[in-house]
Write a structure and sequence with these properties.
The complex is a heterodimer. By secondary structure, chain A is an alpha+beta fold. Helices cover 20% and strands 40% of the residues of chain A. Chain A has helices at residues 12-23, 79-92, 123-140, 202-206, 210-226, 247-254, 259-263, 324-329, 363-368, 419-422, and strands at 28-44, 47-65, 68-74, 144-162, 167-185, 188-198, 233-240, 284-287, 308-313, 316-317, 338-339, 348-349, 353-356, 372-384, 390-402, 405-410, 414-418, 426-429, 434-435, 440-444, 447-455, 458-466. The model of chain A has no long low-confidence stretch (mean pLDDT 95). Chain B is of the alpha+beta class. In chain B, helix 3 (125-139) runs parallel beside helix 4 (208-220). Chains A and B meet through strand 2, strand 3, helix 2, helix 3 and strand 4 of A and strand 2, strand 3, helix 2, strand 4 and strand 7 of B.
Chain lengths: 470, 438
């Protein structure tokens, strides 16, 4: 755990005093201190292209009264700098008066260990793995023309000081291992990308020569795409594979259920609470409490312990995801979903691990039931327009389905749908729920945070596929 | 106040000296300081104020052909010392790469032209609030507008780039930006749209009234959209989307993608990429330009580049490392393009709308559907159906798809270019793309 005060002229006592003094007439707020050590090591084009290390230290000071948020941040942890921030907050809120809410829940549960993954593996042994990946793939097939592989790791220590001197802390490890391969055959080039990661040491993810599995998967995706035909264009049935394709849930439903958009009534879901928004059998949760997952958090960035929040139960909309600000204004409780990219950013309600629960059908049954459609196995990114509810995601591995059988692979295409209605088109839910491999980053208002997704195979009766073949 | 050059220089030379003392054969350091203040409004009331004060340092050390880098926001001498030691330790343990080197000395910027990139005016929060009040009262005046969110940001920054070959330069810059996002609602739908302005100088930004009116008008006209059938149809891209084509083009001609062989434009120098009428220019020395720079992030002087001349690809965007790999000299584009634009076409906006009896006019795209390895393009879109030059009705939940190789050859540009942003395009028509809808 970082000691934020040992090299500063600011003592913990001073900080407490400035915080309590600044927030005395406010509804909420806190001083958020953060110390992040991160590294990235990249092998590309047969060479170690970069090895970099970064150390980022700073604070974000927030005061809230009514709906107004005042925020000031700096990377200089000093008495002077904190006082300047305090004045800045006070001047924004000078004409307002609130009552500080001291209530914050506590829990002893932890969902990952206090480790520093950067120090648990030497630079040389990281370089060794990257070189092995490069050699393995280049030897595997002479269609391999480019290999990029990388390690990224960080340890983030946070400390939250609330008015009255309450202190909450967390140490968050996070790692990611990635392989990207480009193949060239008969003048065609295609890439395949795969990665793994989470909140444990590098070696936990690399044991049993697991790096080979990652290589094989990247290679397999690229090989499939070398044979791909133009994708069809128009409305059709879509079968989604289990695991990572759940970014459909994240885009179509997840963002629209974040508290801020619903308080502001700019989400297509804001007036649908308690109503049927999905087919029967569809249950979706957002869970911050799964051990060592990329999207898990022991406490959120306001200090609230995370939880498993039921968003949709058997088709009915049950809850939004809340931070303290939106919860207070909507007369409900924080769900431990208040997150920020780092101390430079304000807290927003965000997803953690968003998951659709298993049903009892099989993927086989789904494919058999489709006359004409596509089977989507892997995706790149997605995006949503919260207000209109329209969302997209990009296939990176997909196949056509003809008369109940899987046919040729098809080129990457964008799929587009309507969030509030898409889950009503889900006609089968598989029994094969799977978590993603731990690689997701979600962007909102310019802030990226690590997230996870999970789902079983599902059949969607109608979606628009953005191919070129009419 | 943003830190002055003297302070940044002293930090930079402390780093270079220390790296040398440790035994580094070369090093380079960037020290920057930036202060920004933002005020957000929502539905005609103050929503958020945000002050950001950030120092940042990044250091690269070389030992022969070995290199590694560190960055930090903690500028205490103590911390910098620990980090440089760590950096140099990592450098020693990193394998050699024959292409690693500081930029060629003769390419470094010698003269620092004044491009008028800094406006010292301080627009204090009270004034930002006045601006946003006016903006929101205009934006929300139409009954159909149910939510408005707007924002004003003022940023001042200063930096120094120094390396062990004696380069040591930097300069101040500023930006003033305002944006407005509005939500409109009718019995059939709820829609969102926006308007945005960003300039180096305060006096050049769009007025509050203009911004609010435009956001509101652009949102209301999207209400009650239809989905259309799937077909091949000519597409007109609004300027704000057309400039995205340049972003994809710039990504595909970056020397990094070319050297790695992961671009559909590899080995296309001196070949016809666009139709003969198309010219693409990257001009770093525009006075007050949003993307202007005097040198790139390695200190290499940047000159104007004619990237596409009469449809022919003339240059890649080259930095030192990838330049050495490709046997090309850096053209000062480490960090990408500067002020990038398509030159004007010959046809007016009005005439462009009439070139076919039917068009889709795209005002927004969503998704990351550009594949720069294959050139395949597929994104979600919203816009309007145009018939005989007239806007008929709004369209959404469609996708548009094609391949850049074909799309680039089928571009027709209108003559309505202006220099609002760092990447700019006139209104653009592309024929032969596929729309997927019902």
């Amino acid at each position: 755990m970082s000691n934020f005060f040992d090299k500063s002229d600011l003592s913990r006592k001073d900080a407490d005093k400035i915080v309590s003094d600044t927030l005395q007439n406010c509804d909420d707020g806190e001083l958020y201190l953060e110390d992040t050590k991160s590294e990235s090591i990249l092998l590309d084009d047969n060479k170690i292209k970069s090895s970099s290390y970064s150390s980022d230290l700073g604070f974000g000071f927030r005061a809230i009264t009514g709906e107004v948020v005042a925020y000031s941040h700096s990377n200089e942890i000093s008495k002077d700098s904190l006082k300047k921030s305090s004045e800045n907050l006070k001047s924004t809120l000078k004409s307002m008066k609130g009552t500080y809410n001291h209530d914050i829940s506590r829990s002893n549960k932890k969902f990952y260990e206090d480790i520093n993954p950067l120090e648990q593996k030497t630079l040389n042994s990281k370089l060794e793995v990257l070189n092995k990946v490069n050699e393995y793939l280049r030897k595997k097939d002479n269609s391999v023309k480019q290999v990029t592989t990388s390690f990224a790791g960080e340890q983030k220590s946070v400390e939250i000081i609330r008015s009255g001197g309450e202190v909450l802390t967390d140490v968050r490890p996070l790692i990611r291992f990635n392989v990207s391969v480009m193949l060239e055959k008969n003048g065609r080039k295609e890439t395949g990308v795969y990665g793994i990661g989470g909140r444990q040491s590098y070696d936990e993810y690399l044991k049993n020569d697991n790096w080979k599995t990652v290589c094989e998967e990247a290679f397999r995706i690229a090989s499939v795409n070398l044979e791909s035909k133009p994708a069809p264009a128009g409305e059709m049935k879509v079968v989604l594979g289990p695991g990572w394709p759940a970014i459909l849930i994240h885009e179509a439903i997840g963002h629209g259920l974040e508290g801020d958009f619903n308080r502001k009534k700019t989400s297509a879901f804001h007036d649908l609470m308690g109503q049927k928004v999905a087919s029967e059998g569809v249950t979706i949760v957002d869970d911050g409490t799964i051990d060592n997952r990329r999207g898990s958090l022991t406490i959120d960035d306001e200090g609230t312990p995370t939880e498993k929040t039921v968003l949709i139960e058997n088709g009915i909309l049950k809850n939004f995801m809340q931070d303290r600000l939106n919860a207070r204004l909507m007369n409900t409780k924080s769900t431990g979903s208040g997150r920020r990219e780092n101390y430079r950013h304000v807290v927003l309600p965000r997803m953690r691990n968003t998951m659709m629960m298993s049903g009892n059908q099989t993927q086989e049954e789904m494919i058999k039931s489709v006359d004409k459609g596509i089977f989507a196995v892997s995706f790149g990114g997605g995006q949503v327009d919260i207000t209109s509810g329209k969302f997209v995601f990009n296939c990176t591995e997909a196949y056509e389905i003809n008369n109940g059988k899987i046919g040729s692979p098809i080129k990457g295409a964008t799929l587009i749908g309507d969030g509030p209605s898409i889950l009503k088109e889900v006609s089968m839910v598989g029994n094969d729920m799977m978590l993603d491999p731990g690689i997701g980053t979600c962007g909102k208002a310019g802030q990226g945070v690590p997230v996870g997704v999970a789902q079983p195979s599902i059949l969607i009766d109608k979606m628009t596929v953005g191919g070129t073949k009419l | 106040m943003v830190k002055d050059q003297e302070y940044l220089r002293s930090k930079a030379s402390y780093c270079l000296d220390l790296a040398k003392k440790l035994g580094a054969t070369g090093s380079s350091v960037t020290v920057g300081h930036s202060i920004s203040e933002t005020v957000n409004f929502r539905n005609n009331t103050l929503d958020e104020s945000n002050r950001s004060d950030g120092l940042a340092i990044s250091i690269e050390t070389y030992l022969g052909k070995k290199r590694s880098s560190i960055s930090s926001s903690n500028l205490l001498d103590d911390n910098i010392k620990t980090l440089i030691e760590k950096c140099f330790e990592t450098t020693k343990n990193t394998p050699e790469d024959e292409f690693n080197s500081l930029p060629d000395k003769e390419l470094l910027a010698k003269e620092i032209k004044n491009l008028n990139l800094y406006d010292e005016t301080h627009f204090d929060n009270e004034k930002k609030i006045e601006y946003l009040k006016e903006l929101e009262s205009v934006a929300s005046s139409e009954e159909k507008i149910v939510n408005t969110e707007s924002s004003f940001t003022e940023n001042k920054s200063n930096f120094i780039l120094a390396n062990s070959d004696g380069f040591c330069n930097g300069y101040k810059s500023s930006s003033f930006s305002a944006s407005c996002v509005t939500v409109a609602k009718d019995e059939n739908s709820m829609e969102r749209d926006y308007e945005f302005t960003s300039k180096r100088h305060l006096s050049d930004i769009k007025g509050a009234k203009e911004l609010g009116e435009k956001a509101s008008e652009q949102t209301i006209r999207k209400l009650s959209p239809n989905k259309i059938g799937s077909e091949k149809i000519s597409i007109i891209f609004d300027k704000r989307i057309a400039k995205g084509m340049l972003g994809a083009f710039a990504g595909a001609i970056s020397s990094n993608a070319i050297a790695r062989g992961t671009s559909f434009l590899k080995d296309k120098i001196n070949e016809q990429i666009f139709s003969e009428t198309i010219n693409v220019i990257d001009k770093p020395d525009m006075i007050k330009g949003v993307g202007s720079q005097i040198f790139d992030s390695e200190g290499v002087k940047s000159d104007t580049l004619n990237l596409i001349q009469n449809g022919i690809l003339k240059n890649y965007l080259v930095d030192t490392y990838n330049g050495k790999k490709l046997n090309l000299k850096s053209n000062g584009r480490c960090g990408g393009t500067t002020n990038l634009y398509f030159d004007n076409g010959k046809i007016s906006f009005e005439d462009l709308l009439k070139t076919n009896s039917k068009h889709i006019y795209v005002t927004e795209t969503i998704g990351h559907g550009s594949n720069l390895v294959t050139g395949d393009y597929s994104v979600g879109a919203t816009g309007f159906l145009i018939e005989n030059g007239e806007f008929k009705f709004p369209v959404n939940e469609i996708t548009i798809a094609g391949n850049f190789k074909d799309m680039f050859k089928n571009i027709t540009l209108a003559s309505d270019l202006d220099f609002e942003y760092s990447v700019n395009s006139p209104t653009m028509m592309i024929e032969g793309m596929t729309v997927a809808g019902k």
